[in-house]
């Protein structure tokens, strides 16, 4: 059993209501991944290959707890009881945020690549090896998977809108990568960490990239 299979199967056991029909095996093969890589500037990192070959995950909203520096700057936290955001009572408390995760679907390599590009800001982003894989905190922050480093990065939507890159570097892969190297901040050091967060909900220290003691580790 792979790492991704363990995380996803443990998530299914904890929240069976999310998987009424059960987890669906990915139909992809290593050859499908090789076909995808022919259209990408970088090879798919091994951890992401593991994910693509494990199970299909549809677009899903999860709620995760953050406890790093970013959480101190967010003035609202999501209340599961009130089904919405409420004002944080302290800048030092953990913050719950909604994460809209794109997941992974596709019946073949081309289909999976199309799904990866679903939220693509412009072709320049995938040409730079960056895929938007989600967004969080009411969509204010965008999540990108960097094929070059294997990291999951985050960036505030306003930083992109105000940078001028949408007007001047819409399809310029070099401009996109230069922008993200300047403005993108590490959210997870690798895809396994990101998947663990999606499957467990944290708490997660997004500054030091660690899970406090007691967080499930399938």
From TrEMBL:
Pfam families: SMI1_KNR4
Knr4/Smi1-like domain ranges (all copies): 27-197
Domain of life where this protein originates: Bacteria
Name of the molecule in the record: SMI1/KNR4 family protein
Organism of this sequence: Candidatus Flavonifractor merdigallinarum
């Amino acid at each position: 059993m792979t790492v991704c299979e363990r995380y996803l199967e443990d998530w299914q056991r904890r929240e069976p209501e999310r998987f009424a029909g059960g987890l669906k095996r990915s139909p992809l093969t290593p050859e499908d991944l090789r076909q995808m890589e022919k259209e990408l500037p970088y090879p798919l990192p091994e951890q992401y290959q593991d994910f693509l070959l494990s199970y299909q995950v549809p677009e899903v909203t999860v709620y995760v707890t953050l406890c790093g520096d970013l959480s101190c700057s967010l003035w609202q936290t999501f209340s599961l009881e009130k089904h919405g955001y409420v004002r944080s009572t302290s800048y030092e408390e953990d913050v719950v945020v909604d994460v809209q995760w794109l997941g992974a679907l596709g019946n073949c390599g081309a289909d999976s690549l199309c799904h990866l590009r679903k939220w693509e800001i412009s072709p320049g982003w995938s040409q730079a090896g960056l895929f938007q894989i989600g967004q969080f905190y009411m969509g204010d922050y965008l999540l990108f998977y960097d094929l070059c480093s294997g990291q999951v990065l985050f960036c505030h939507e306003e930083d992109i809108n105000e940078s001028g890159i949408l007007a001047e570097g819409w399809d310029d892969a070099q401009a996109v990568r230069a922008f993200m190297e300047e403005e993108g901040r590490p959210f997870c050091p690798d895809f396994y960490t990101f998947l663990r967060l999606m499957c467990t909900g944290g708490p997660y220290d997004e500054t030091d990239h660690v899970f406090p003691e007691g967080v499930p580790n399938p």
